[in-house]
Specification:
Two copies of one chain form a homodimer. By secondary structure, the first copy, chain A, is of the alpha/beta class. The first copy, chain A, is built from 14 helices and 16 strands. In chain A, the strands form two sheets. In chain A, strands 7, 8, 9, 10, 11, 12, 13, 14, 15 and 16 form a ten-stranded mixed β-sheet that branches. In chain A, strands 3-2-1-4-5-6 form a six-stranded parallel β-sheet, sandwiched between helices. At the A-B interface, helix 2, helix 6, strand 12 and helix 12 of A face helix 2, helix 6, strand 12 and helix 12 of B. Strand 12 of chain A pairs antiparallel with strand 12 (294-301) of chain B.
Chain lengths: 428, 428
């Protein structure tokens, strides 16, 4: 155990530079904690000449990450390039096929190819570790797969895209609309090159699919996530929700139902005074519920050089200490198929609509809800200007199917001025 | 790796029964996750005939926990008896001297004898794991020692005694005083046999000393914790603090200072809108700050059968999977002495006092603070009845020494009606 752990690092963007910086600055501390020197042997990135603010001269430079992954003088391939296909995938496969463990921050790669990669790794007795892929600096993979290994997990949920949470909390704080805050986030550099990864909920859904696999012992199934982004969240709904004691969050929820696995990523209402409701700005939060532990809440920075590098280092230290785990918490070949539940679990809903100023309009809506089996918990009609009246309804627990049925019936009445907004209220 | 992991469990109180229950109920899940069967070989408790609501007939019964620990047919000794001396200590030592790993929930044992036990274990190549000893179901030991191993930890703090937090939050909610809520907690069975362990801050300080050792690479030093319990917290201060935007919590803080290690357990003010400020009832919270990760907040149940058993099971699963760690995150023989800082780090303070109704009384207090170098951030004098006037002061950051100096000077004036209350405001 006194031989060094030798790393090859592919990708020297923000996270890669952060990892190199910690390995240089904390070399003694890391050796004290793991009992081994941790050495960078070689690195790889697109531009060898760029000044990254950190000394790289002691390391071999590889232009091709696949060549880096294949080197026989490294023990661990650290993949920090990103992207689910191309170089990241090829290099990860090359590392596994030549006997290296892999540490990665790549959520897209794992969400789309996690099962195949895990099978390849485990067949060769190798580890893939990816703490940095989910919720930045929060040790959520470790907590779920190791700390809570004695639990049958009942629900995992979280706010796992800082940019979306930034936009939503700034909408409430500033009174500006979605488009203005999207532009602000863009100017601040908070958005991915393809912003739909953020605001469309894709990035957060990659993370949710990974957590669901560990939590429920199922093959990671990104295609099974029902995804809705934040693009249609309006200032009006944020304000009305606040008025009723809720906040709107882009919330990912994974849960087993009698009919299969539920994986949803969508704007939801959560109680304003709950930990999720109180989450501001770019911070992430994951809530894990298990039959023994009840509920654990983990909160921390979801991105950034230091926090993400911290997560990568945690994985590297585990490998240096000799801890080996199945990639998704149990051997990949034993994971079950994640059959998506065709219908979601019941929940209360928030409904907002504009009714035309006609006699009996509200009665008609109430009747439609009643016929669909949707019962009303609270209702508010606001004083109306001109020809339409805004109405807010919070329902009791209802099935998504019953709600859908009611919304369809409303659409063909002559009293609704525009398509009603319906948002799930997640009970915490 | 296909041989079973064989357990001997000493102590069948709430936690012990919870552990047995999970091992029986989740046997298949645990085997899938760890790759090994986990078997209870023998148990030990005071009363063999008591009905504990769980079947024990398949296990050998030992009346003496030391004899259980010495059995050569177990791999792991699970110590759930509690108490820093006597049987728990003797049995733990016996387990280590006969080649067994130890899993324990015993914070007192580790806080007082952790260094010697860790040295004994590590010399024999054995592990001692104790996730359940700190903050119940929250995987805080794992997060700190493994997940955040790449960080230089800068501060660890937390609310780690649910009973104290219950009493303090109930005082605010009900308007009842400390004594009434102490009695309520007693009736609900929330108090240890020696209630001073809870309300005197001892139990929480055991936990803080353990966290500080891992965080700062120092020998666990319970004697070095400055401890003040919640017995002197008044309803008046809870209300005034709330009025200024704060809540009073029994907060443990460990931090390195230029003069040594600071370990404090004392009632502190924290911002009411911070995660710590919002923590209600028996829930625990630990905040970990590191140079890379910035700040992680972990929240969950601090006690109870399920949550504590969940933590014990996490440790057992790690041992089953073959993960081995130094007890306090780095080899015990390399841990530094935890020299207590003789003086605390600067902080703002909350001061409440009653001034006698004399001309110039407030001016005298302001002058004393100024002379001691303590500057005032906010001050309120309330309209006074009869002969005394209540005064509240929030200071700017000041050293505990300067504040002490000012308080001593106030005591010898003729304007202060009773000893001023001074509470630290912890900045988060």
């Amino acid at each position: 155990m006194t031989n060094a752990l030798r790393l090859g690092i592919a990708g020297l963007g923000t996270v890669g530079v952060g990892v190199v910086r910690i390995l240089r600055k904390q070399a003694k501390l890391l050796e004290a904690r793991t009992g081994r020197r941790i050495e960078i042997i070689a690195v790889s990135a697109r531009d060898a000449d760029k000044d990254r603010g950190v000394t790289l001269s002691g390391y071999d430079w590889e232009t091709d990450p696949v060549a880096l992954a294949r080197r026989d003088d490294i023990d661990v391939f650290v993949e920090l390039m990103g992207g689910s296909e191309g170089a990241a995938k090829a290099a990860t496969e090359a590392a596994l096929s030549t006997g290296k463990h892999v540490v990665t921050a790549n959520k897209a790669l794992l969400a789309l190819h996690g099962q195949a990669l895990a099978e390849q790794a485990e067949a060769a007795g190798l580890s893939i570790r990816y703490e940095a892929a989910v919720a930045g600096g929060i040790p959520v993979i470790k907590s779920l797969a190791e700390g809570l290994a004695g639990n049958e997990i009942t629900r995992v949920m979280g706010v796992m895209n800082g940019t979306c949470n930034y936009i939503l909390t700034r909408m409430e704080a500033t009174g500006q609309g979605y488009n203005a805050l999207f532009e602000e986030a863009d100017k601040l550099g908070f958005l991915e090159a393809d912003p739909n990864l953020d605001v469309g909920g894709i990035d957060a859904s990659h993370k949710l699919a990974i957590l669901a696999s560990i939590a429920f012992g199922t093959k990671v199934n990104f295609a099974g996530v029902e995804i809705e982004g934040i693009q249609r969240v309006t200032l009006e709904d944020i304000r009305q929700a606040a008025d009723m004691g809720y906040r709107i969050k882009l919330l990912g929820v994974a849960q087993r139902s009698p009919r299969g696995l539920v994986q949803r990523m969508q704007p939801c209402l959560v109680p304003a005074n709950s930990p999720l409701g109180q989450l501001e700005g770019g911070t992430n939060m994951v809530v894990i519920e298990g039959d023994a532990v009840e509920q654990i809440v983990l909160r921390g920075p979801g991105a950034g050089e230091g926090p993400t590098a911290s997560a990568v280092l945690g994985d590297i230290c585990d490998l240096a200490r000799g801890c080996r785990m199945p990639v998704f918490g149990q051997p990949a070949v034993t994971l079950a198929d994640a059959t998506p539940a065709q219908t979601g679990l019941p929940a209360p809903y928030y409904l907002r609509m504009s009714l035309l100023d006609k006699p009996g309009a509200l009665a008609k809506i109430a009747a439609i809800l009643g016929e669909a089996g949707v019962s009303i918990d609270r209702m508010r009609q606001y004083s109306h200007s001109e020809t339409t009246a805004p109405v807010l309804i919070v329902t009791h627990k209802t099935t998504p199917a019953a709600l859908e049925h009611a919304l369809e019936a409303m659409a063909v009445t002559d009293v609704v001025a525009s398509e009603p907004v319906a948002l799930r209220i997640e009970q915490i």
